[in-house]
Amino acid sequence: MVARRLPAQVDPTTCGIAALAVVAARTGALPGYLGAGRDHHLRVQQRLHSLAARTVLPWPQAWGTSPWALASLAGGATGYAHHLLPWGEGTLRATEEALASGRDVFLYVGGRETPVSSGADSVWGSVSRSVGGFVRGLLRGPATDPGVPTSGPAASSRPAGAGPVATDGSGIWHRLGPRAAELVGQWGLDLVPRHVVALLAGGRHAGAFTVFEPSSGMVTEVPRTVFQGSAPLPGAPFGHWSRPLFAVVPRP
Fold this sequence. Notes:
about 250 residues, alpha+beta, 6-stranded antiparallel beta sheet, about 35% helix, globular
């Protein structure tokens, strides 16, 4: 039986690390973590976050946890190789197979309230076309005042998303300034990974996913249908981000 609350992330950049720590604790790799106090959670998450920033490729801690570091560290904790898969029907099936075999899955989410195409090919084609222009544009202009896009779905009245690049302006885009905000809006805010949740094996109901959301520490069951079609994800269980982007899936 899955608890209703698990240790939450200790700062805005450790959503992936908090998810990793919970998964590692469930496998026995972090004994005592789930029942410990916040000071222990802080020390563990800081240690893992520092390790993740140096794993595979260097990655700024302010940007959260890179998917390749998460995959590598999760593999070490669980004994299963983890693979990064763009979201689509094939990844949904691989996720369900892993969960049915007792293996937890990490899900990177993002997006605004207005869905883009649900096809993985079109999403990741847009990513590859967008990244170069985003980086070139960012280098052309200095960052000065804080800011995020002020029009369109990203500026709606929905709750601010959790994660290292939250829409409330507390994340990395806020620190980079209005030029970054403008370019993110232009080159694919919908497609930037914003938050990490864990899909936990051992759920109580068939046809449902058990989601650990690190910013709140809450564990919620959501129906499989939330991943079908192009409707936005249902708010709080996914940190108030609207779409799955890719998964880090264990394979035997």
